[in-house]
Amino acid sequence: MTAPTKYVYEFTEGSREMAALLGGKGAGLAEMTRLGLPVPPGFTVTTEACTAYLKTGAEPPELAVEAARALAGLERTMGRTLGAPDDPLLVSVRSGARFSMPGMMDTILDIGLNDRSVTGLAEASGQERFAWDSYRRLIQMFGHTVMGVDGDLFEEAIATHKAQRAVSGDHDLDTAELALITEEFKAIIRKETGEDFPQDPAEQLARAIRAVFDSWNGERAHIYRHREHISEDLGTAVNVQAMVFGNLHSAVTFESSGTGVTFTRDPATGERGMYGDYLPDAQGEDVVAGVRDALPLSELKRLNPRVYVQLAHHLGTLERHYRDLCDVEFTVERGKLWILQTRVGKRTAEAAFRIAHDLREEGTITPDESLVRVDGAELTRLMFPRFDTTPADIPLAQGVPASPGAAVGVVVFDSAEAVRRAAAGEDTVLVRRETTPDDLPGMIAAQAVLTSRGGKTSHAAVVARGMGKVCVCGAEALTVDPTARRFTTASGVLVHEGDTVSVDGTAGTVHLGALPLTASDVGRALETGVASGPLTEAVLGALTHADSVRRLEVRANADTPEDAVRARGLGAKGIGLCRTEHMFLGERRALVEAMILARDDSARQDALGALLPLQREDFTGILTAMDGLPVTIRLIDPPLHEFLPDRTELAVRLARTEHPDPHDRELLAAVERMHEQNPMLGLRGVRLGLAVPGLMAMQVRAIAEAVVARLRAGGRPRAEIMIPLIDTVEELRLARTEAEAVLAEVEAETGTTLDCPIGTMIELPRAALTADRIAEAADFFSFGTNDLTQTTWGLSRDDAEASFFPLYLEKGVFTVSPFETIDQEGVGRLVELAVEAGRAVNSRLETGVCGEHGGDPDSIHFFHRVGLDYVSCSPFRIPAARLEAGRAALMDTTGDSDSR
Asked: What is the structure's pLDDT at 329?
């Protein structure tokens, strides 16, 4: 008999291993309870209860009974009853999904207060103002989150009272004012919803839990999950926890209260030491919201040294236990420290590498674990340029460097405008007083986020760091006026919407205009192999370890000697794709035109003969740069008409000219003759090589003679000849026969033995499905996944991305473009089948990929699993590909993955 599903767990019943069921927050609370940390007691409603509710629209029948039982246990533990008229128990209701989604779902504090219990709270605490402050917070949160009232209505009411009192902060309002505001809030709810704020504490709790469930399907939560590739069907847990109060002071001992968020290391730089914000006389949401400028955590040491020491001790316990950066929320109530939440902290790319490196050096984690905790996307961000500033570049303002990097864009003052301009291709900087979860679409669209309030633990900072977005918070010198669409600096400079600014997330500065860029320290270190500081030391160390454990080779897509030199400097172990068609552009285009316009074989051979030494020189330079490493040279692939002038332009030019150039007439006739309705599926690749006499032979001879030249110069050339766009083994056999004949001729002419493997690109579904036959005539397969994706999906990349792809991504037809990350079910399956079939026939068959997927982190892991020998990508992506190839080898062995 199957045991009934359990929907509620007390904190004493869970552990960190139960994150899928209890959510990350609930699992963290349970784990801290097990460790003996001072955690306010409570219970967690599971993600399974949420998913059941979202599927049926109703809570599971057992949930109410289990929640009531857990609440009764909490009341016994606390010695108080929820919402009792004298000394009431109050609880918070917080979301907590398996994967951290900061600010994307809902929280309600102070559940249990009503018109009677607010008086009891005032008497029990001896703080009447505190009681009314807590009650107005509940009504504001509950009204907006649970009852759907526009939050601006509450903010406007508070603003009116502050203006009348000539005060700037909520904490400056006295008891009488707060009581008046509370009544106004209740009137707003009644007017907007037609119902009263519920006075029954049990009803408050039940409705709050449902609201948190519903927030899983909120717009901002959807957007965040889409960006972070979090599954839509996980649901959120709900944590019900006894309230502790950072806005409650002791009238007897005068011990202060407050709340804060801290990290065990700096989440922006990775530097060792406690780092965070503290806000006296506040509740937890105040710090994250950034509505008041928090104090640096070091101020807590001055205000309450005993609590500071206790906090440091607990942070050390958590970091040793989790063996990672921990993000901790805490509250001090009348001098007593409470830990409200912990999770593995989100961090910038810089911090990720430094923390992984330092934890490895400290012996906390192994080198393998250190490598798994960083990724290629983070490394790529570190390679981006930075601003080349001088002392003369006076910033408009200085703020908190919340998320590093350099970004330039036009100023916008709301999320919708950032989204609109980004859709039009314009880079923007989103400027706000402080951000809220509703700003998420704009934060995603913008290149940088700038706020005049908040610190490193504010919403803007936490979300920006998680997305790798440049962010400066707390630029207090800026007066942001979203209504007038402008901000003003301390010196009186006005910056309007549409003006260009530069945001330096590393220095925490904002500058007027577009600053010049220079190479990053990491980029320079990767090219020189020399570390210049802790960050570059960490990056080079991670790559060294990745190279020592990876199975996949990483090669480059490079068409010139200069690209080859740079790729080799970045760690490429050869060239996986050298595109010869790029060598026919510029001044050489005239020679290609001559070949196309040739009236007989003799004229064609003359044109090809003129191209031969140029091609030989190209190949010699590339083979020199990659001496001793494989260089896979793809014979000409695109249709020949791409080397001719545009058909329409030619026709117009001829029509407008009284005495047309005969050469133009000849060119137009050639263009008309070669015109195809769908040229990408027409006369190109191997078809072109077979159809144009001498073209393939000229290229093979150029390769062979370049190899001979390098051998005679004492080099170790390793040229490989790749035949593109094979559909059937018969095409490859014909092409191979011609290539081998040319190689034999060059051997006979030079007395040199040549070893040039001949293989093919697998870029058509038929080729993948008949790979066993093609492998009989191939020394290697290179998967051209760009064209393989187009032909498998039956679409044109350029057309699709410009038309319906945004709709498909929005509607979830796919979560990421199949041209960015390999479609494992379709295209990936063809690759897997081809590798298996090809190697069954030819055990020495080498396999690799040379499409853009070769540099994509997720795709690299797939290519490792299906057994490819190498990936090839553009030079800039080589370091990230090396890193991911190492991570793939480790994760394939351990099944481990990084939770961040």
From this structure: 94
Read off the pLDDT of each residue in 468-491 and give the average, rounded to a whole number.
Answer: 90
Give residue-wise pLDDT tens across range 429-472: 999 988 877 788 899 899 999 999 887 667 777 778 777 788 99
Residue of 850, 853, 864, 873 marked catalytic: 850
What amino acid occupies position 35? L
- Please enumerate, as own/partner, the contacts of 367-372 that have beta carbons within 8 Å and a separation of 24 or more: 367/545, 368/545, 368/549, 368/890, 368/894, 369/323, 369/896, 370/542, 370/545, 371/542, 371/545, 371/546, 371/549, 371/883, 371/886, 371/887, 371/890, 372/887, 372/890, 372/891, 372/894, 372/896, 372/897, 372/898
| Secondary structure (DSSP) of 510-556 | EEES---EE--HHHHHHHH----SHHHHHHHHHHHHHHHH--SEEEE
pLDDT of residue 820: 87
With residue 402 as reference, give the H or E element that holds it.
Answer: strand 400-403
Among 262, 514, 206, CA closest to 385: 514
Tokens 């007439």, residue located = 665
Asked if 659 is an active-site residue, the reply is no
Report how far residue 767's alpha carbon sits from residue 587's, in angstroms, rounded to the nearest whole number.
36
The beta-strand segments (E) located in 590-682 are 630-634
Torsion (CA) 267, 269, 275, 279 in degrees, nearest 10: -70
Amino acid at 739: A
Q: Are 304 and 283 in contact (CB under 8 A)?
A: no
Paired with 95 in beta bridges are 238
User: Which position among 459, 511, 641, 861 bears the catalytic label?
Assistant: 459
DSSP 121-162: HHHHHT-HHHHHHHHHHHHHHHHHHTT---HHHHHHHHHHHH
Give the model's pLDDT for residue 870: 98
Is the separation of the CB atoms in 823 and 793 below 8 Å? yes
pLDDT band at 253 (very low <50, low <70, confident <90, very high): very low
- The predicted pLDDT at position 104 comes to 76
What mean pLDDT is predicted for residues 798-805? 78
Of the candidates 538, 511, 395, 407, the one whose C-alpha atom is nearest the C-alpha of residue 464 is: 407
Adjacent-strand bridge partners of 722:
634, 759
Distance from C-alpha of 414 to C-alpha of 889, rounded to nearest angstrom: 44
3-state secondary structure of 115: coil
Binning pLDDT at 50, 70 and 90, where does residue 102 land?
confident
Helix-, strand-, coil-residue percentages of the chain, each rounded to 5: 50, 15, 35
Return the structure tokens found at 519: 């190479």
pLDDT at position 386, please? Answer: 82
| pLDDT computed for residue 899 by the predictor | 36
545 is catalytic: no
Give the pLDDT of residue 656: 78
Residues in a beta bridge with 411: 429
Which range, 42-51, 592-601, 681-690, has the best average confidence (pLDDT)?
Answer: 42-51
Q: Is the pLDDT reported for residue 627 higher than 50?
A: yes
- Per-residue HEC secondary structure of 714-735 comes to CCCCEEEEEECCCCCHHHHHHH
> What distance in Å separates the CA atoms of residue 359 and residue 325, rounded to the nearest whole number?
9
Give the per-residue pLDDT at 640: 66
DSSP H helices, 406-520, are 415-423, 440-445, 459-467
**Alpha-carbon Rg of the chain, whole angstroms?**
33
